Every structure is written in C-alpha cells, then in structure tokens.
Amino acid sequence: MSVGSSTVTVTNVTEVAHGYAFGLNMAAFVVGPTGLAYDAEADVLYVASTSDNEIFKILHAETTNTSVLKGILVFSGIGRALLPKGPQRMFEKLELAME
Q1: What letters, b where the CB count within 10 A reaches 16 and e where it falls short, cover 22-32?
Q2: Which of 25, 35, 76, 89 is spaced 20 to 30 A from 95 at the CA atom?
C-alpha cells in the first residue's frame, strides 16, 4: 500500500479467505462479510460474516499466501433462539472473540 497526501493506492493484493455467504439486498445492495478485526500480536484476522451469522478467524493472515475456506469458526448464532440475527449482535460477539 502506498499512502499519499490525498490518496491511498493498493500495490499488492492477497486473498486470505473465501467462501463467505453474500447476496443482493434492496436496502444494502450487497450483504456479505461486514466486519474485520486484526490482532497483530497473534497475526489473526477475524471476519464477521453477517449473511452466515458467524465469526471466523484466519491464522497467519499477514504472512499467508494461501486462501482458506472461511477460516476457523469461533462463533455461530445459527439455531440459537436467544441470539438475534443482525450486525450489531455480530459485532458484540466479534469483540468477545478477540478477548
């Protein structure tokens, strides 16, 4: 990445994960992974996938050159009646997954 005074230019792209659910939505245009958090000490990228209602972690995210299928599941709200589906709940769980 190159950062200028008024521009940011991506100079290299590496896909570290794939396979997340996504779809078209009249209100949001596209719904898919909506949250990313990176733990630099552990080199772990957390992905909140709203359409899947799940949070995944991707190990060695900075150094990998191989794309994984979603990553390691660390939270799933599917089938749990007490956990409402939606982005706010996903971000709360993303914060807990990183602690």
Answers
A1: eeeeeeeeebe
A2: 25
